[in-house]
Amino acid sequence: MHLAVPGPTSKGPAEKFTGDVYLNALHGAEHPSRLASAMVRFTPGARTHWHSHPVGQTLHCTDGTGLVANRDGEVILMRAGDTVYTPAGEEHWHGATRDSLMCHLALVEHDAGQTATWFEPVTEDDYRAAHATTHPETFNEQR
What we know:
By secondary structure, this protein is mostly beta strands. The protein has helices at 124-134, 136-142; strands at residues 10-11, 17-18, 21-28, 35-42, 47-48, 51-52, 57-70, 75-79, 83-86, 92-96, 102-109, 117-118.
């Protein structure tokens, strides 16, 4: 047993995130474990690019309000205390709503050292559509 001290805060790289995102590594899948975890903080409107995970991903929202969306157009509004699971291979993105910070714990398992496959950025149209699905009154007021 040992205390796992979080890694230093780093800014999420532009090739994986849109907007200001900050990461703290929590656990790095030390053998024999395959579980990696991080605390990820999103400023309003910030989000990941499209991506998938070879063994799936669990997101546990600790603060604020966020969105999780997949290629099929399904959108989940995630609030503090909510947990969302994306299955292996499902292309998705997640991030903060336009009017709230959001922090989540991201839990993924390594598969032969790989945790994610990254794709293109989420377009403004895709982000607005997801936001409108979960916040129709806010979306209509801000148009």
